[in-house]
């Protein structure tokens, strides 16, 4: 360009007239524009030398945004696209939350006259895809390596958590490299060129610091987990879960988790940030609610908001199962501001209410919030590079974990002191109670002596009255027993036996047997008065009196029941009387049966061993029931047949366990002893029932039975 300029000046010499001056000026102007254009479109290479150990080049590179994600290296490296690249003025390069492709063009020049080797580092690990292009021997750009969170970790040529590329330069050589980057989250990264020795020393220092940080977090997790297992205080479990979630976030952000733990599973590296954020934030809110006792110390609506927040973060854990990381990462970043803000407000309210545990909590959480806020704002492209944005989270989380440990210990001391105060108050109260008890005992002792004397006197009086009642009951029992048939009706072809066992000395079951004046008809009567004891026995005695003229009506037992009912009206006092009345003619074996709500009469046939039951219509005798019509049934007995009448105290007898003997078992019992004579029959049946109840006298009901055997 300079040669053209000099030839231009020489052309025509100095002897040009004033008429040629405008043409000279035009040519000068054209040359000036050529110089300006060449300087505008030229790209100055970044100089390197062996003496440069570390150089940040983020502001010296050029970038191109590919919103359609359709450009390839051929187009990007062509002269057509050369002018479309923009020079960066950012350090680090910060494209915020984006899903576009970004091309980075880096031109480096070896200023030395000897070969040199440099290392290019993208100082950020969470990028989905990074393609690195370099010139081949023909000067054409070719793909050297593709790596990132979309690929398994082992595809990287250099085993490092960040993206590392080794660059070799010949003497005074200029080389151009291209990077193609795409990610679903924040794209914020510095570009650094290192000398190999300096890089490895720096990397060792970084790993030492991170190792110390990881060690602190692991110790905190194990220490507080052991405390939880010993104290069973749920606050420690929430705190351990919070540290674990935060630790997981750091493993994702630093890339060490991808490098050492899940290197073969790139999907985990892309999604675990969201999962660990959900674990960390939900447990943080639960820990704050438990530790600060928010149910009592803050407004209920704020407490409801905390409930809602931890539920949302708990659901965030499952988002990666259904949604892509392009969406879930942005949601988790947005929610990461909500939970700490609400917890900070709750802690401040508790602090101003002079709730002692809130002091340490607020101090620890302030460290964590400030450091964490810088990181979130950094990835949201709202703040630039700073020590707090890069390393503050490690310092803040370590300090907060340490202070939280003091906070939990302080809370334990508070609870211990409260427990000691409560125990002291209990001891003092017990001491006062003992003194009061001594005073009361002294006064009660006198009262007890007096009361004991009174009780002894009352006891003697009660015993005397009980003996009198016992004597009266014994007399009443003898009187009631005298009402039972003392002499059985005699007939040469009939055997009769009965048993009547009251629950107490006296009872409501009653049996009567008569014969007419000629001896050709026998009357059998059995009844059951509701209730027990003296009252039922009195009603049974009145029934006996109502049967005074029974022998005159043996031919119609149904009529006799109606007549007896009429005589008892107004005297039952609410009691019920059930009864069965039978007239038997020994000469013919004919039998008449009437029933007033009593259990059926059972007839066991000798000829076939089968049984028949007879229960004519008729209701129990009671003052409040309408006047009934008592039906009389007729049947005949044959030789060896047995007729059994009984009260419900037999089948309803109960064992000590409360089980009933039952109708079916009672019927089987009657059949089993049907071959015995009436006396043995009664003894055997009653004996079996008493064996079942393990009582000689039933404690639940009276028992009565009449057995008639026809000899033909």
Automatic annotation (TrEMBL):
Residue ranges occupied by any PPM-type phosphatase domain in the UniProt entry: 491-710
Entry's Gene Ontology molecular function annotations: phosphatase activity
SUPFAM superfamilies with a match to the protein in the record: PP2C-like
Record keyword Ubl conjugation present: no
Alphabetical list of Pfam families matching this protein: 7TMR-DISM_7TM, 7TMR-DISMED2, SpoIIE
Tagged with keyword RNA-binding: no
InterPro entries xrefs: 7TMR_DISM_rcpt_extracell_dom1, 7TMR_DISM_rcpt_extracell_dom2, Bact_Sigma-Reg, PPM-type-like_dom_sf, PPM-type_phosphatase-like_dom
Entry coiled-coil feature ranges: 412-439
Gene3D superfamilies on file: 2.60.40.2380, PPM-type phosphatase domain
UniProt KW keywords: Coiled coil, Hydrolase, Membrane, Transmembrane, Transmembrane helix
Domain of life of the native organism: Bacteria
Membrane-spanning segments: 211-229, 236-253, 273-292, 304-323, 329-352, 359-380, 392-409
Protein name: Serine/threonine protein phosphatase
Record organism: Leptospira andrefontaineae
Upper lineage: Bacteria, Pseudomonadati, Spirochaetota, Spirochaetia, Leptospirales
């Amino acid at each position: 360009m300079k040669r053209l300029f000099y030839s231009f000046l020489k052309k025509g010499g100095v002897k040009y007239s004033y008429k040629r001056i405008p043409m000279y000026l035009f040519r000068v102007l054209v040359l000036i524009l050529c110089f300006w254009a060449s300087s505008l479109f030229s790209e100055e290479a970044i100089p390197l030398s062996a003496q440069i150990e570390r150089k940040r080049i983020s502001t010296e590179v050029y970038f191109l945004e590919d919103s359609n994600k359709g450009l390839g290296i051929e187009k990007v490296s062509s002269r057509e696209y050369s002018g479309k690249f923009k020079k960066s003025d950012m350090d680090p390069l910060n494209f915020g939350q984006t899903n576009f492709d970004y091309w980075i063009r880096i031109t480096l020049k070896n200023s030395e006259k000897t070969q040199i080797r440099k290392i290019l580092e993208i100082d950020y690990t969470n990028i989905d895809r990074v393609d690195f292009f370099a010139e081949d021997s023909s000067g054409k750009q070719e793909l050297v390596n593709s790596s990132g969170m979309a690929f398994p970790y082992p595809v990287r040529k250099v085993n490092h958590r960040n993206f590392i590329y080794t660059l070799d330069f010949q003497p005074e050589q200029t080389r151009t490299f291209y990077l193609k980057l795409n990610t679903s989250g924040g794209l914020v990264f510095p570009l650094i060129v290192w000398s190999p020795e300096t890089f490895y020393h720096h990397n060792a220092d970084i790993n030492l610091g991170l190792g110390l940080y990881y060690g602190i977090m692991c110790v905190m997790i194990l220490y507080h987990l052991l405390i939880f297992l010993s104290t069973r205080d749920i606050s420690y479990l929430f705190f351990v879960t919070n540290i674990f979630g935060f630790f997981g976030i750091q493993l994702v952000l630093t890339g060490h988790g991808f490098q050492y733990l899940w290197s073969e599973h790139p999907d985990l590296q892309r999604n675990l940030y969201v999962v660990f954020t959900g674990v960390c934030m939900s447990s943080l809110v639960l820990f704050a609610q438990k530790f600060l006792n928010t149910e009592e110390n803050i407004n209920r609506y704020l407490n409801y908001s905390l409930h809602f927040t931890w539920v949302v973060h708990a659901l965030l854990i499952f988002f990666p199962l259904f949604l892509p990381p392009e969406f879930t990462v942005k949601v988790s970043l947005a929610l990461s501001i909500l939970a700490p803000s609400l917890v900070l407000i709750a802690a401040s309210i508790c602090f101003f209410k002079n709730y002692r545990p809130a002091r340490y909590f607020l101090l620890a959480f302030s460290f964590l919030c400030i450091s964490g806020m810088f990181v979130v704002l950094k990835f949201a492209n709202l703040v630039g590079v700073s020590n707090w944005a890069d390393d503050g989270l490690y310092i803040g989380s370590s300090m907060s974990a340490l202070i939280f440990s003091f906070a939990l210990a302080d809370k334990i001391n508070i609870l211990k002191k409260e427990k000691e105060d409560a125990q002291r108050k209990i001891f003092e109260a017990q001491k006062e109670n003992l003194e009061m008890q001594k005073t009361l005992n002294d006064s009660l002792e006198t009262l007890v002596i007096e009361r004991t004397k009174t009780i002894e006197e009352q006891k003697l009086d009660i015993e005397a009255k009980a003996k009198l009642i016992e004597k009266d009951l014994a007399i009443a029992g003898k009187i009631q027993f005298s009402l039972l048939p003392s002499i059985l009706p005699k007939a040469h072809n009939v055997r009769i036996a009965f048993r009547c066992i009251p629950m107490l000395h006296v009872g409501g079951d009653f049996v009567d047997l008569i014969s007419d004046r000629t001896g050709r008809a026998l009357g059998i009567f059995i009844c059951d008065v509701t209730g027990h004891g003296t009252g039922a026995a009195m009603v049974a005695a009145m029934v006996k009196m109502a049967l005074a003229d029974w022998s005159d009506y043996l031919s119609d037992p149904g009529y006799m029941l109606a007549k007896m009912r009429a005589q008892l009206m107004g005297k039952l006092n609410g009691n019920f009387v059930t009864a069965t009345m039978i007239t038997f003619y020994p000469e013919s074996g004919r039998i008449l049966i009437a029933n007033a709500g009593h259990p059926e009469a059972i007839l066991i046939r000798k000829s076939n061993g089968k049984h028949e039951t007879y229960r004519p219509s008729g209701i129990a005798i009671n003052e409040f029931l309408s006047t009934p019509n008592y039906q009389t049934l007729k049947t005949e007995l044959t030789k060896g047949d047995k007729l059994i009448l009984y009260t419900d105290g037999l089948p309803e007898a109960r064992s000590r366990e409360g089980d009933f003997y039952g109708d079916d078992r009672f019927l089987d019992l009657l059949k089993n002893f049907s071959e015995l004579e009436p006396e043995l029959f009664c003894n055997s049946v009653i004996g079996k029932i008493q064996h079942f109840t393990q009582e000689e006298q039933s404690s639940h009901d009276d028992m009565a039975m009449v057995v008639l055997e026809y000899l033909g």
